[in-house]
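Hi support team,

I submitted a single chain yesterday and got back a structure, but I'm not sure I'm reading the C-alpha cell output correctly. Could someone confirm the output below corresponds to the sequence I sent? I've pasted both exactly as they appear in my results page.

Thanks,
R.
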Amino acid sequence: MAPLTATSSPFPRTESPGNSVVPREAHKHMTSLTPTVSDKVEILALVETALSWDVDSPALPAVKDALDMARQFTDYGLIVADDLQTQIFSFPADSDLCISAQATLGEASRRLHLKPLAQSAAPRSAAHRAQNLARLVQALNRTISEVGREQARTRPMQAPQRE
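Hi R., thanks for writing in. Yes, this is the structure output for that exact sequence:
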C-alpha cells in the first residue's frame, strides 16, 4: 500500500477567495497545520509496540512517546475511518457488513475526537490512551479489509477490452 499523504486527509480544504496567492511566510505557517501521517507499515509496527506494553508494570514508556503514538494513531485512524465511510456507501445499509462497519465507525468517532492528553498526564494514562487507539486502528484496518474483500467478491467480472 502506498504511503498516506496529506492530500488524502479527511480534513476540509478551503480555498482563498479569488484563488489569491498566499505570501510565502503565511504558507510556511499553514503547511505546519497539515497533518503528517505515517504509512501503514510504520503505523502497524507502532501498534504492535503499544500493545506489547504491560500497563500494570512500573516500566512504562515515556509519556511523550506514548502521546506521540496516540497522535499518530489518531491521524491515521481519521484517514482510514473517512475512507471506510466512503467505501460502505456501495453496500445496502441493512447488510451485516455495513452494520458492522457502522459500529466500528461509531467507536472511531468517539475515540478519535477525544481531547489529547496533556504532557503532564500520568504514564499509565498515556499508555492506556495509546493502547486503546492502537486497538481501534486494528479494528479499522480489519473492517476496511473486510469491505475491500466484499467489494472484490461482488464486483462484476469485466471482459478484457479490445483495441
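A quick pointer for reading it: Confidence is low (pLDDT under 50) at residues 1-36. Let us know if anything else looks off.

Best,
Support desk
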